Amino acid sequence: MRTQRKRSLSIAGHRTSVSLEEPFWTGLREIAAERNLPLTALIAEIDLARAEDNLSSALRLHVLAHYRAMAGRSA
Question: What is the pLDDT of residue 42?
Answer without folding.
Answer: 97
